[in-house]
Amino acid sequence: MENKTNSSETKQMSGELTFSDKVIQKIIGFALADIDGLLTIDGGFFSNIAEKLVNTNDVTTGIHTEVGKKQVAVDMDIVVEFGKDVRKIYDEVKEIISSEVSQMTHLEVVEVNVNVVDIKSKEQYQEESETVQDKVSDAASSTGRYISKQTSKATKKAKNEAQARTEPRVE
């Protein structure tokens, strides 16, 4: 039996493929992880504090995208390492974003805007990151000990009160 496909017999299937901003932001975040001289993509003061408080690895922090049906525009703030060629880092960022987004989604990256918000030595950046994390860990530890003590006190008090209520008040 011969299997012939006649164009009039073939049904056209309709549908659409779209991408959420977060998907494009993740592609970019993962792609930029190993660029020499790029210390971090900065999401601003509050997101950095939140990131360090929760110790999250959210690669989308600080990456803003506008995603259309065929094109993508990207904006981000970065912190670069002192002594590195910022123009070279910018060119590499653009190339990697364009390549990875295009390869994975077939969307065209039409714009990449990078704002350098700070420049730090690698040691300074690591020290500041560790200092915030250490302070948060220490605070969490001492808060935990305090809450444990207060819970213990409250439990003893509740037991004593419950015992007092179960004992007869009159003889």
TrEMBL record:
It comes from the Bacteria. It holds the Pfam family Asp23. Belongs to the asp23 family. Residues 158-171 have a biased composition (Basic and acidic residues). InterPro entries: Asp23. Residues 127-171 are annotated as: Disordered. This is Stress response regulator gls24 homolog. PANTHER family: ALKALINE SHOCK PROTEIN 23 (PTHR34297:SF3), HYPOTHETICAL CYTOSOLIC PROTEIN-RELATED (PTHR34297).
